[in-house]
């Protein structure tokens, strides 16, 4: 049976490059260039809009009421918690929601979000979840890592609130629920089957998109 941990270990180098990226380390020690962070915040607003649509697509793809509950809860969590926190957080950085809606999508944002939506439109529900999983599982991992890392700077770090947001219990729970849901959906998929290889490829492509999302903060700012 295929597990989420197999998906991670099948692309361990990319996973580490994503979750331990220079952008993440610089958030932790407070040295990230402000322009890169602002660019990231603006693009993340657009990213989250499409991510909410992907949960709605997951609901659409479910064929029974019980299965609809997970993507529905995740969609509610995205709208009521993550997007709300993001909008409040952006306000403190002088970015209004109107500003962010008017900003053009960067190429990395288009590539990542459309990859996820395409996985859902042209593939199965489990393939859609595989494309979405690096988001929730990766950020929960990053948040916890930064909170526990001995050289993370808390006092005077302009990015402290971001660290607290992704290190908090709610985000950890969202990451764990996402992995548990994916495990349950993959329980009948043999590890070395064609279906498993397709899922691993989709997961890895999404991880590579997360790396590109960090990178575009430096390149486009
Ligand atoms: C690009 C990206 N990836 C993941 C997350 C965490 N939901 C996020 N806010 N933005």
TrEMBL record:
Organism: Parendozoicomonas callyspongiae
Protein name (Swiss-Prot/TrEMBL): Aminopyrimidine aminohydrolase
Catalysed transformations (reactions): 4-amino-5-aminomethyl-2-methylpyrimidine + H2O = 4-amino-5-hydroxymethyl-2-methylpyrimidine + NH4(+); thiamine + H2O = 5-(2-hydroxyethyl)-4-methylthiazole + 4-amino-5-hydroxymethyl-2-methylpyrimidine + H(+)
Pathway involvement of the protein, from the record: Cofactor biosynthesis; thiamine diphosphate biosynthesis
InterPro entries documented for this protein: Haem_Oase-like_multi-hlx, Thiaminase-2/PQQC, Thiaminase_II, Thiamine_Salvage_TenA
Lineage: Bacteria, Pseudomonadati, Pseudomonadota, Gammaproteobacteria, Oceanospirillales
UniProt EC number: 3.5.99.2
UniProt keyword list: Hydrolase, Thiamine biosynthesis
Record Gene3D superfamilies: Heme oxygenase-like
Keyword Transmembrane helix: no
Function in brief: Catalyzes an amino-pyrimidine hydrolysis reaction at the C5' of the pyrimidine moiety of thiamine compounds, a reaction that is part of a thiamine salvage pathway.
Superkingdom of origin organism: Bacteria
A Pfam match: TENA_THI-4
Domain Thiaminase-2/PQQC: 12-218
Protein family (similarity comment): Belongs to the TenA family.
């Amino acid at each position: 049976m295929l597990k989420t941990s197999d998906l991670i270990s099948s692309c361990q180098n990319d996973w580490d490059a994503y979750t331990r990226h220079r952008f993440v380390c610089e958030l932790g020690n407070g040295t990230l260039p402000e322009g890169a962070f602002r660019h990231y915040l603006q693009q993340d607003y657009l990213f989250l809009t499409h991510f909410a649509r992907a949960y709605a697509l997951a609901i659409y793809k479910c064929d029974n009421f019980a299965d609809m509950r997970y993507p529905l809860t995740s969609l509610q969590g995205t709208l009521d918690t993550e997007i709300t926190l993001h909008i409040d957080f952006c306000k403190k950085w002088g970015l209004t929601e109107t500003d962010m809606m008017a900003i053009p999508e960067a190429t990395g944002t288009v590539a990542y979000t459309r990859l996820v939506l395409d996985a859902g439109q042209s593939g199965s529900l489990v393939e859609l979840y595989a494309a979405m999983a690096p988001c929730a599982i990766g950020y929960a991992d990053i948040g916890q890592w930064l909170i526990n890392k001995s050289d993370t700077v808390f006092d005077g770090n302009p990015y402290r609130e971001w660290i607290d947001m992704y290190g908090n219990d709610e985000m950890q729970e969202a990451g764990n629920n996402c992995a548990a849901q994916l495990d349950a959906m993959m329980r009948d998929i043999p590890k070395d089957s064609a279906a498993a290889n397709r899922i691993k490829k989709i997961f890895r492509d999404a991880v590579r998109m997360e790396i590109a999302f960090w990178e575009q903060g430096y390149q486009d700012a």
